[in-house]
Write a structure and sequence with these properties.
Length: 270
């Protein structure tokens, strides 16, 4: 009895982590319902589709529409299920019947978020779903982020990959907008400190503003421009102010930021 149970268990886990693609380790392939072709996963399909010569042929798999899978151990094609109907192998240690998703790498700690409607990684206990932002965030951001409605349902402003179901880690900036972590750090490394979407400062710039104060104090403007005034809009606080023009920068009178831009004077009331 014990020998039979051991044999069945070995069969169940046969080939674990031995099959798959660059995206997932799994013991089955999927038949794409859109084009009837076979791929390891939807990402493999989408990448292959995106390089087709004719843009009208580009398309993506709707994960929930997958109906057929092919066991990588015995090549049996069958309806979506966790266990192969022919050889009994477990085609994915993690399996989501809703997303038609398989993965042998359980260290990712997958979980299905009902609100997002897709599977996430990182452990259910480590994340919460923000209803306004419309996505799962790390518990560290609970009551500690600026909400932007559906902030994850757009493309990364740097690389333009869709963020909501991206495999890459994402970050939430002070303004509430999101982008890939690697894109964010690359942006900072290039001395770009403003959100590409709303232009607000994404890090504490107080030391930089103090340094600009010192530069302005040490840089005297020519007589013709010394008392010239301009209207500015502050990207950080959205305040509109009339200030003295300086070639180095214009300081917001409200929040003391230099993240400003000149605008036309406001219209006079009739």
């Amino acid at each position: 009895m014990e020998k039979g149970a051991s044999s069945a268990n070995e069969r169940l886990h046969f080939g674990k982590m031995g099959y798959g693609c660059q995206h997932y380790r799994r013991r089955c392939k999927i038949r794409a319902p859109c084009c009837n072709e076979v791929f390891w996963c939807r990402h493999c399909h989408n990448e292959a589709s995106s390089v087709l010569k004719n843009p009208s042929d580009w398309h993506e798999i709707v994960r929930q529409d997958v109906k057929q899978v092919i066991c990588s151990v015995c090549d049996t094609e069958q309806q979506v299920a966790q266990l192969c109907s022919n050889c009994g192998v477990n085609m994915g240690e993690y399996f989501c019947e809703i997303c038609k998703f398989f993965d042998d790498d359980t260290e990712k700690e997958h979980f299905h978020c009902q609100e997002c409607g897709i599977c996430r990684v990182g452990g259910r206990d480590n994340y919460f779903h923000c209803k306004k932002c419309g996505s799962c965030y790390s518990n560290a951001l609970r009551d500690n982020h600026f909400c932007v409605e559906n902030s994850m349902r757009h493309h990364c402003p740097i690389c333009y990959e869709y963020l909501f179901d991206s495999l890459k880690d994402t970050t939430v900036m002070k303004c509430g907008h999101t982008m890939h972590c690697e894109c964010y750090y690359e942006m900072i490394k290039r001395d770009k400190y403003c959100c590409p979407i709303c232009s607000k400062s994404v890090i504490d710039m107080s030391r930089t503003w103090m340094r600009i104060d010192e530069e302005i104090e040490a840089t005297e403007m020519p007589e013709d421009y010394r008392y010239k005034k301009v209207w500015i809009l502050c990207n950080d606080c959205n305040d509109t102010t009339e200030v003295y023009f300086h070639i180095i920068g214009q300081k917001c009178s409200h929040c003391k930021s230099y993240n400003t831009r000149t605008i036309s004077p406001p219209a006079l009331p009739h």
